[in-house]
Each structure stands twice: as structure tokens, then as C-alpha cells.
Amino acid sequence: MRTLKKVAHLYYEKNMNQKEIAKIVDVSRSQISRMLTEAKNEGIVKITILDTVDSCEHLEESLKKYFGLKDAIVVPTTSYIPDMIRQVVGQAAANYLNSIIKSNQKIGVSWGISVYEMIKSMKSLNLAETTGIEVVQLIGGLGQTSTTLQSFSLANELSNILDGQSHLMHAPGFVSNSNLVDNLKKDKEIGAILEKGRNVDIALMGLDALWKHRSLVQVDNLTENDLDLLEEKGAVGQSCFRFYDINGNICSKSIDERVLSISLAELKDIETVIGIATSLDTTEAILGGLRNGFLDVLVSDEKTVEEIIFQQEDFLEQNN
């Protein structure tokens, strides 16, 4: 009983993850998971679920209805300041992944702030007991963009959290010409990672317009001419650096051919593609991604989804 209390204290009050606690108590991580479950069963830990989580069910059903999603998680965020919304949505996405993940699955990871927040939240969860997890980088490196936001860093971090194996792509994600992409794809190692990415069971995707924030995203090969072309073509969002307009159409074939990542078309063949995004990532980026159809699940916040539903209903009314 004393050890159970210690483990519960370290996990719930000191916010340590299971791997850290396992080293202190000198047991395996799977034993820590069982001890946390036992602590709840013994009444050492009591968890209260607020009934406000039910308030967004109608929005979740509307998302599934309008965009053919398998699932949707809409987080009530009226009581949160804007800076906290990404964290709350990231936590909801982490909980969702933890609820569906199974042993021996492959998880693909893209890049961006929302994916970062989700993976950061995984550290504090009572993780499902799994083995044989593989985590695959879905896009190459993006120049001088913050390391914490890049796919290789996020994939490696998630594999560590899940005691899995990471498959990293040692190549740039966006290059100066399509011939270079073709040559990189022919490399045995890079080609193998891309193939693993096409065959993951779950893909974690951000949807945003981060490329417009030059202080955050610094990709040398994304030129001013490229930015002008994306604006001209009405780019509202990107996922794995695949740029699309409000209707989900790829904006520029010439730019798309310079990206070394899984394509939006290839994502449609993956069993479960989870999009994580908030109004801070822009509503248009999320709406365009939904209309493209590569998502199976969306995790977002109440205010954002209300706007998405409003815009989609208005669009359908005007086109009927």
C-alpha cells in the first residue's frame, strides 16, 4: 500500500511520467501502469469527470455527418484563455490516441505545434499497456524551423514515451526542385521510411498555416516566389507541407512535387488519420483539410468547430 501511494503521488502530484517513476521504484514501466490502476481500485486515487464534456456531443455528431469522419472530439474551451486552448486540445488528442492504440501498431507523425502539444501530453497519461510500437517520421526536416516542432523530433519523443522503435528520415522535407525529390525517393533508406509511412495504422497530423509565420517556420527552399504563388492560389492550410485551398484542393502541383513526405492522397489509404488543430491554427486550414477528405478523426475546440459547422452549412445551402 505504501508503494502504491508513492507511485500515485509521483504520477498525479509531481507530474512524473511512468518511465521516470519506474526508475525510482526500480520496477518495469508496465508494473507502474498496473500499480496506478490498483491505486484507483483501492481508492487511493479518485478521478472526477466533469459533466461539461457532454456539452459538445452535437458538434461532434455534426462533424461526422458533414465530413464523413469516423470520430470527432470537441473540447469545451469557453473557460480557457486562448494560450491554453492548444494544450487542452493536445491533451484530448493524447487521451484519444491512448484509448485506441494497440500493441504492434505503427504510428506516423507529422509536425507542428498541435502535434507537439499532443505528444507532450502523452507523458502525463496512465498509458495503455502496449508492446512493439513503431513510430514513423512522415516528413523530412524543415530547415531552421524549431527542432521541437519537427517530425523527426516528435517521432523520436513519442517512440520514447511508448517504449517503441522510431524510424527517422534523414533528409530535407522541402527542396528546390522536383528532380531532387525523385532522387531522394530512390535512396534505399529514405525510400524504406516513406514506404513505412504509407503503411502506418495511425497518422497524427497538424492542420495549420504555420508557413506564414516566418519567425517559427524557416525553410530556406520556401522562397518569396513560392509564398506569392501560394497566396495567389488561395492556400489556407497545410498538412505535412502539402498546401491546399479552402476546398481541400492542392494549390500548386509544382510546389507539391518538391515535398518529401506522405501525400494527402496516400493518407486516405491509412486506417486512422487523426487531425489535431484549434482556432489558433486558423479555421480555414481545418475546414480545407476536412473537405479534402484525408482525415478520419478531428480533435479540436468548441469555438473552432462551431465556426466550421456554420461555414459548411452556409456552403451547402448556397450550393443546393
Automatic annotation (TrEMBL):
Question: What family does this chain come from, according to its entry?
Answer: Belongs to the SorC transcriptional regulatory family.
Known SUPFAM superfamilies for this protein?
NagB/RpiA/CoA transferase-like (SSF100950)
Keywords tagged on the record:
DNA-binding, Transcription, Transcription regulation
Spell out the molecular function terms from Gene Ontology: carbohydrate binding; DNA binding
Recorded superkingdom: Bacteria
> Boundaries of each Sugar-binding domain copy?
54-309
Annotated protein name in UniProt: DNA-binding transcriptional regulator LsrR, DeoR family
Which Pfam families does the protein's record reference? Sugar-bind
Q: What is the lineage of its organism?
A: Bacteria, Bacillati, Bacillota, Clostridia, Halanaerobiales
